[in-house]
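Title: Comparing notes on inverse folding

I've been comparing how different people in this forum approach sequence design from structure. To keep things fair, I'm posting one structure and asking everyone to reply with a full sequence. Here's the target:
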């Protein structure tokens, strides 16, 4: 969020001049979209009525420039977002961003720009045009598949800040380990506070904390998939708390079954 805010603040001072952009390309489940959504909500809460200071749009599977402009216009309430040529849509999208007082455009699923041959260059060209227009900076979010798409365009890379990182947490990094264990404890406490379970599972317990980071590769989204599946196991069995056996079954039934990991370290506990 600090990276978003820094690029946005620079953009405000450079309005009318070529803007900077930023990238956040990491594996699925690290929290890119969640961070963007929460940043947008915070900005909107403090915004003047009728303005949209930060706009979050999603690049669809087609990965075309036209689709990008349609998404921007639709998000800003244009009832005719589908009508017009690509050039007309780009002009209207830029005008709409200016009218809405938008200070940052966040484009999620940017890796879709490389799904079909040729579209990678189309999207990078569109981003350059948006930056050159001087309306607002652009933040690009996507999986690691987006890295080669945007690395090919050296001209665009020169207009981007240093890549932002939000990668998997690593157990042997002291700071990452502290974040991981703190999140496990907070998740446990919140499930009890929300009456989802009657008692804490002990996710942050010694040994289980390490096994969970190994099973989920340190990715928050994978952890949430594990816990959701374990909860389902308990509910189907008529219980109001999650056991270690539920977590073991969840890793087998979700993490291993989906190919996120090949083994189940919880079985060794």
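Reply #1:
Here's my take.
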């Amino acid at each position: 969020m600090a990276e978003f805010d820094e690029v946005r603040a620079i953009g405000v001072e450079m309005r009318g001049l070529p803007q900077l952009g930023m990238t956040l390309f990491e594996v699925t489940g690290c929290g890119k979209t969640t961070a963007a959504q929460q940043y947008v909500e915070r900005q909107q809460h403090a915004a003047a009525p009728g303005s949209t200071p930060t706009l979050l749009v999603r690049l669809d599977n087609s990965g075309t420039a036209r689709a990008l402009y349609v998404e921007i216009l639709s998000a800003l309430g244009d009832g005719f977002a589908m009508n017009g040529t690509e050039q007309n849509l780009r002009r209207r999208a830029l005008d709409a961003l200016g009218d809405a007082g938008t200070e940052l455009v966040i484009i999620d699923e940017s890796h879709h720009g490389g799904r079909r041959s040729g579209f990678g260059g189309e999207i990078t060209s569109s981003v350059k045009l948006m930056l050159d227009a001087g309306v607002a900076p652009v933040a690009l979010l996507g999986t690691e598949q987006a890295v080669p798409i945007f690395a090919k365009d050296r001209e665009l890379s020169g207009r981007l800040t240093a890549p932002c990182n939000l990668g998997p947490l690593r157990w042997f990094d002291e700071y990452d380990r502290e974040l991981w264990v703190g999140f496990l404890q907070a998740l446990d406490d919140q499930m009890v506070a929300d009456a989802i379970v009657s008692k804490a599972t002990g996710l942050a317990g010694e040994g289980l904390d390490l096994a969970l980071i190994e099973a989920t590769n340190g990715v928050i989204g994978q952890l949430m998939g594990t816990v959701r599946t374990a909860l389902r196991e308990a509910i189907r069995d008529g219980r109001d708390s999650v056991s270690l056996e539920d977590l073991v079954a969840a890793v087998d039934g979700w993490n291993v079954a989906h190919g996120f990991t090949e083994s189940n370290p919880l079985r060794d506990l």
